Amino acid sequence: MLRMIAWRLAGLVVTLLAVSVVIFLVMDVLPGDPAAIMLGTSARPDTLAALRLELGLDQPLPLRFAAWIGGVLTGDLGTSTTYGGPVAGLILDRLGVTLPLALMAIVLSVALALPLGILAASRRGSAWDLLATGVAQIGVAMPNFWVGILLILVFASTLGIMPSGGFPGWDAGIPPALAALALPAIALALPQAGVLTRVTRSAVLDVLHEDFVRTARAKGLTKRAALWRHAVPNALLPVVTVVGLQFTFLIAGAVLVENVFGLPGLGRLALQALQQRDLVVMQDVVLLLAALVIVVNFLVDLSYLVLDPRLRASA
């Protein structure tokens, strides 16, 4: 098993390197002068020349890539031309909002979806099945930003029991910070819970028709015991895969919800960098998001070894 993990780690490193090359080349081949894109076409020639020198645009492409990767490995992500500060500090501040938001959303999604999906599968064709699948379908059909607007109208504007937006910071205390993230987390979790409910239902139904479940029932095991001892553990692999994909989506795709609630998250930083033509921030944020996706997929692969004894035996 250790050899398999070592191979996966090597594949992780190679993938990260390949992704960094692609990101750097895409940013480099964008039409127009990067300095002119950042400063605008009305910038003075001496200002453009100074920015090109600061960004190292006068150096050959391999040297610029090596300098960028060296900075990433040492924690020096460059300086933002818009904010005038280190990009690493900007990203760390935004991660302090986006990561807790994504964790809260994925916990809510799993807490809603797993019971609904298992209930629907165990009582296929019943009223509970129709109710669970109907709720899941409604959740899938609702855009998360629209859910966020509804939550603001109901719980902030009408009832006044939750903040409508903004983030006080973790220095203000954990309860106020969690209260500011509660409605955005619900807005992100509900559509994802709809998808996960359908996946859980399908996975459990597939396992319930396997021979080993029928054998367990033939040996006298009750329906409930066969469900929880055999069907649910063996149905977790596709569920874990979807949860990993949803977590990366919640980190990289929460830009709309962050803008609806005015949260200073990573998605909003990427959008502001795009609007303000801050290519330094854009390049680093895209690399970070890609790295998070790759790392989460790696952790999902490792979880297969824990959940499936057959994989452990083959490893």
- Corresponding CATH superfamily of the largest domain: MetI-like
Q: Which blocks of ≥5 consecutive residues have pLDDT under 50? A: none
CATH class of the largest domain, please?
Mainly Alpha
Chain-averaged pLDDT: 82
Helix content range of the residues, please? over 70%
Number of domains: 2
Please give the number of β-strands: 0
Measure the end-to-end span.
Answer: 5 Å
What global shape is seen?
globular
Q: Provide the succession of SSEs.
A: HHHHHHHHHHHHHHH
Q: Report the radius of gyration as a whole number of Å.
A: 24 Å
Q: What is the overall number of helices?
A: 15
Structural class: mainly alpha
| CATH architecture annotation of the largest domain | Orthogonal Bundle
Q: Briefly note the CATH topology name of the largest domain.
A: MetI-like fold
Determine the strand fraction and express it as a percent band.
under 5%
Main beta sheet: none
Pfam families: BPD_transp_1, BPD_transp_1_N
Organism: Aurantimonas aggregata
GO molecular function: dipeptide transmembrane transporter activity
Subcellular location: Cell membrane
